[in-house]
Structure formats: C-alpha cells, structure tokens
Design a protein that fits this description.
185 residues, alpha+beta, Peroxidase, domain 1, Dihydrodipicolinate Reductase, domain 2, 2 domains, four-stranded mixed β-sheet, 4 strands, elongated
Length: 185
C-alpha cells in the first residue's frame, strides 16, 4: 500500500513536470522503456532494491544504463528519485505514470486474450467495438493463452467479456453436476 501511494505521488509530479517542460510524450516513451526493463530483468530490480549498494553508486549505474536512451528531464528525475532513496519504487512509478498518462489522454487499454492470436481483420473489428463503447483512443494489448482452447476474452478497464471455449465448457460441466433430474433406483 505504501509503495502504491508513493508511486502515485511521484508519477503525478513527474507528469506535471513533463507537461511543464513540454516533454510529456518523450517521458511517456521513457517510462515504457523503464517499465519493460524492470519487467524483463529481475537482476535490475534486485539492484534497485538492494540496501547494500550506496546511493551514489546506484546513480552512476543508472546513468550508464540509461545513457542516450532517456530525455534529460527523465534522467534528472530518476537521479532525484534515487537521491531521495525512492529508487525501489521505480517500477511502480513507471507503471503508475503510464496509467496516469493514459487517463489524462483518455486512452483505453483493451486486452484481448486468444488461443492462437488474432489477424488484422479481427483486430480492426475489436478496435471498432471498443471505440464504440467509449469516446477514447484505444490501445490493443494482445495475449495468447492456449488454456482457453478457442474463442476470446476481451477486457477493457474493469469490464470483461469471456467468450472462450474453456469458459463455456466449465459452465456446461457445472450444469451437469447440478442436474436435478438424476434417476433414483
């Protein structure tokens, strides 16, 4: 809970700073880079959370890791976060920044989970359906999960539409278990 509050506050202040400096789009791209790095590299997260590594050493390493990849405002902000010993929340700050950016720009994220992926025709139809629901731009996140067997699961915000074969099989299985017409002998 503490990390979430810290991340929300730091992300909000960074959005305000980026907007003020006119580099909001670049900062958004930078936060996506940081988020992807944190998600894909467990050693990097361990480095950020290590109490054994001193702040100045962390700042030097972060400077080298992100050299030439981030804009000056983002780089300075990461150095500030590190000097305040909040680098352990960098992943959460990046994720919260992305969420707040999307909220500010009215961008919906639709997650489509299928068993084999989707083609361009279905992708366009999904985008039209989701755009029809809200008055926002849509970012489509595609996931593959073989366990759903077929069909799809569409999630937009806190709403979910489950049209997967696995879900239908589970409903059928429950219906058979609850069958009140069992012949008595």
């Amino acid at each position: 809970m503490q990390g979430t509050r810290v991340a929300a506050r730091y992300a909000k202040s960074f959005i305000d700073l980026s907007s003020e400096q006119g580099v909001l789009e670049q900062s958004y791209t930078d936060m996506k880079i940081i988020s992807a790095l944190c998600k894909s590299n467990h050693d990097f997260l361990s480095f950020l959370k290590s109490p054994l590594i001193k702040t100045d050493k962390k700042q030097a390493i972060l400077k080298q890791v992100f050299e030439g990849k981030l804009n000056k405002v983002t780089d300075a902000y990461i150095q500030l976060i590190t000097s305040k010993k909040r680098e352990i929340y960098l992943q959460e700050i990046a994720l919260e920044f992305i969420n707040q950016y999307k909220e500010k720009k009215k961008i919906l994220t639709a997650v489509v989970t299928t068993a084999n992926g989707i083609d361009d025709v279905i992708r366009k139809k999904v985008m039209q359906i989701v755009k029809g629901v809200g008055n926002s731009d849509v970012v489509l996140d595609e996931k593959i999960n073989k366990d759903i067997i077929g069909g799809y699961i569409l999630r937009v915000g806190d709403k979910q539409m489950d049209a997967s074969i696995a879900s239908k099989l589970n409903i059928l299985r429950r219906t058979f278990k609850e069958n009140p017409f069992i012949k008595e002998i």
